[in-house]
Each structure stands twice: as C-alpha cells, then as structure tokens.
Specification:
The chain is α+β, with helices and mostly antiparallel strands and 61 residues long. The longest helix has 10 residues. The N and C termini lie far apart (32 Å).
C-alpha cells in the first residue's frame, strides 16, 4: 500500500527538526510544509515521498 501512496502518512520525530528539514529538502524532496509551530503544541514539517505518501516529522521536546 505504501508503494502506491495509499498508506496515508508516516510520523517521525527528531530532536533537531531544522537540521533534518534542511537535509531532506537538499535531497529534492517535495516540501508540503516547512517547520511550523502548531496550535496544538508541537513543531513539525511535512514532505511527500516519491509514491505520494505524506511524511510528517515533529520535534522532540
């Protein structure tokens, strides 16, 4: 299902969101959302993989 882009999304976490965002963006990933402080209390960003799956990465606090 993931290869067809129908899985939905994947959530990852990192202590350094900005460094991970810069590294993934430098690899020409499709940026969906730059690092943003969400109203529900987390800071995260989002990309799409080549199959169309949404990858969200949040900052550990």
């Amino acid at each position: 299902m993931m290869a067809k882009g129908t899985y939905g999304w994947i959530l990852l976490a990192t202590p350094d969101l900005d460094a991970v965002f810069d590294k993934v963006r430098a690899a020409d990933a499709e940026v969906v959302q730059e690092p943003t402080e969400q109203p529900y209390g987390i800071r995260d960003c989002a990309f799409r993989d080549p199959a169309g799956n949404l990858i969200r990465i949040q900052q550990l606090r």
